[in-house]
Write a structure and sequence with these properties.
It contains 13 helices and 7 strands. The protein is an alpha/beta fold. It folds into 2 domains: about 130 residues, Winged helix-like DNA-binding domain superfamily/Winged helix DNA-binding domain (Arc Repressor Mutant, subunit A, Orthogonal Bundle), CATH 1.10.10; about 120 residues, Trna Endonuclease, Chain: A, domain 1. A 4-stranded mixed β-sheet has the order 4-5-6-7. A 3-stranded antiparallel β-sheet has the order 1-3-2. It starts with a helix and ends in a 23-residue tail after the last helix.
């Protein structure tokens, strides 16, 4: 189990107690061994996929220890224990949480610096005493908003008319870069009706290849027979690529079937459909935007 960043703080400080200068990666590897993390746990990423969860938590443990004056950095990307940190270890401390850092004036000053003017709540009260790091809190909150939006979006799509669903498929494909122009894609969708094929669109703007489509606005899982019929239609039309889109889901046998045949068939279920809609801004609009920035290390290179 990956420890929270507060659990990491004391072991991190003890790893530095010999006074040597350590690189961040060295400490991460040492602590991962200390906590007996598996390779899978060490590789587990934040929802964004930008950083390993354990690396992120070690980084925030270091951040708070530094704000309390218990560790210091002579060079970028390194850390070593301070005299104040050594004294804390020598005192025989057995546990170290963020609330324990309030005995140090540097940490008190840090808390004051992030207080919300005119309000009793502070950023510290919102996240410093939680198990998740600020980045984790932000990313998991974003993931929750994304999941809720996708669920609401799918309900709306399922209740739409067949004509609107046809238009939605066109818009999504065009936003993803398929179908040539929207006008061309609109003509291609819903016009074929040729043995299990609902439409044919260009794979690229030049039309170097085509993709055959099947779109089903269903509630129940799509039977594997429908996928076999679609594959048969591709074969009859000497087509090599197809996309089957549904508002419901596919059984495991459908995925096994498409992986066993020569033709390339992509299955897009309701969850993937709404994810693609959100990613390509189809049926959704931007409400607000937050930017998370970090230090540009290259800027400060001597």
């Amino acid at each position: 189990m990956i420890p929270d960043y507060q659990t990491i703080m004391l072991p991190l400080l003890k790893k530095l107690e010999n006074g040597q200068v350590f690189k961040f990666r060295e400490i991460v590897e040492s602590l991962s061994a200390y906590f007996s993390l598996t390779e899978e746990e060490k590789r587990e990423l934040l929802p964004s996929g930008n950083q390993a969860i354990f690396d992120n938590r070690v980084g925030w443990a270091r951040f708070y220890l530094k704000k309390a004056g218990l560790i210091e950095s002579e060079k970028r990307g390194t850390m070593q224990i301070s005299d104040k940190g050594k004294k804390l270890i020598d005192d025989g401390i057995s546990e170290l949480r963020t609330k324990d850092l309030e005995q140090f004036q540097e940490f008190v000053d840090f808390k004051k610096s992030i207080s919300k003017t005119g309000k009793k709540e502070t950023l510290e009260e919102n996240y410093i005493n939680e198990k998740s790091t600020p980045i984790e809190t932000l990313e998991y909150a974003y993931q929750k908003l994304h999941t809720d939006l996708a669920s609401e979006l799918l309900d709306i799509v399922k209740s739409s008319s067949p004509a609107f669903f046809e238009q939605l498929v066109v818009d999504l494909l065009v936003h993803m870069g398929y179908g040539g122009s929207r006008r061309e894609a609109g003509k291609a969708i819903g016009r074929s009706n040729d043995g299990g094929i609902d439409g044919i669109v260009k794979e690229d703007m030049l039309g170097l290849d085509v993709i055959y489509l099947q779109a089903k606005r269903w509630e129940n899982a799509v039977p594997v027979k429908e996928i076999r019929d679609f594959a048969g239609a591709l074969l009859a039309n000497k087509a090599r690529k197809g996309v089957f889109i549904t508002t419901s889901s596919f059984p495991g046998s459908a995925y096994e079937f498409v992986n066993s045949i020569e033709h390339k068939i992509i299955l897009i279920d309701g969850d993937m459909l709404t994810t693609l809609m959100i990613e390509h801004n189809v049926g959704v609009s931007l409400e607000t935007k937050y930017e998370v920035k970090k230090i540009d290390s290259d800027y400060f290179e001597d």
